[in-house]
Amino acid sequence: MSVSLAFLGDGLVARGLWDEWFPEHDVHNLAASGNTTDEVIAQIDRVIELRPDAIVIGVGTNDLGWRKSDEYVVRNVETILHTLRRALPETRIMVQSVLPRDRDFAETIRSINRHVWQYAPTQHVQYLDLWPALALPDGELDPALGIDRLHLNPAGYAAWLAELKPGLEMLFERPPSTTSIPIQHA
């Protein structure tokens, strides 16, 4: 079954060879190096115009480089998910955990991931937790999987892909959603 599959996010996503790894799908890599959640929000109309069958999102780590708070990142990810769900009710959507990096960011990333994991089901979005495959117990990116404490090497992408492939299979087994639950701002 060939479907259109859009990847959205930051440089970690942009560097993925998704069209090579998913040759059975019509892949669109809309991610870009340096993208923060703000840039993804700015690109959202482009994704909506594409009307892909499925969207895979990976974003948030660059926000931390700009010293944005976990609340800021979570609110933007919620906005991304809600906007996509409202505009594309038949599209299957997966949001991935913010990937581990150097341990100084571990607690903030854990907080972001916990909130996104809790929010995703309200928008009928599948959450994919990549931490078990990529992080050390202290929350740092496993050095065997990275070229520094942020970017992945081929082994890191292989570990990611080993989680993503079954995650996408599950995503396509479920019917697409037709409703979203509005964001409640306090």
Summarize the structure in words.
This is Lysophospholipase L1. One of its GO terms (molecular function) is phosphatidylcholine lysophospholipase activity. The model has no long low-confidence stretch (mean pLDDT 93). The protein has one domain: 3-Layer(aba) Sandwich (Rossmann fold), CATH 3.40.50. By secondary structure, it is an alpha/beta fold. Helix 6 links the parallel strand 4 and strand 5.
Please specify the SSE layout and strand pairing.
Blueprint: E1 4-9, H1 11-14, H2 18-21, E2 26-29, H3 37-50, E3 54-58, H4 61-65, H5 70-87, E4 92-96, H6 106-119, E5 126-128, H7 131-134, H8 154-173
Parallel strand pairs: 1-2, 1-3, 3-4, 4-5
Quick summary:
With about 190 residues, the protein is α/β, with parallel strands linked by helices. Helix content is about 45%, strand content about 10%. It contains 8 helices and 5 strands.
